[in-house]
From TrEMBL:
Its EC number is 3.4.24.-. Its cofactor is Zn(2+). This is M48 family metalloprotease. Pfam families: Peptidase_M48.
Amino acid sequence: MVLIAWWRALLQDDTALILPATLAHEIAHQALGHPGRRILRLLTHLQCAGLAFGVLAMALHAPWPLILVTAVVTVAARLCLDRTYCHDELAADLHAVTLLDRAGIPGRRAIGATLAEDAAAEPRWHALTGWIFTGHPTVSARLRNLRQGR
Ligand SMILES: [Zn+2]
């Protein structure tokens, strides 16, 4: 009886869709093999090695072109890492829609409800420029991705 009431609430109330949508998004990351991918480990190691080498090069007063190249490689690794994370987030949203639909839960509506909740909590700095410096796409980019379905 409680399960039926919960199921009805789930299908009628968007806020009730947030929990299954959040779980589906995280399951989608696992299903798509996002954690532990070789490229993520490689980029992380490259970024850390670049940072350590750069600090060492500065401490040893290495020639500035060497320090500059090290900085460029380190920043490039970080940006590639962030782009990869952003791509993974968008892919997880779309795969979560599929998983939820298969479970009889309106996937697009559920993920949309979750993103609407996220939009209210998204800091303004992230909405404006955060996509450049973080591994999470903006909520508006995720909503656009959800609408376009790619
Ligand atoms: Zn995610």
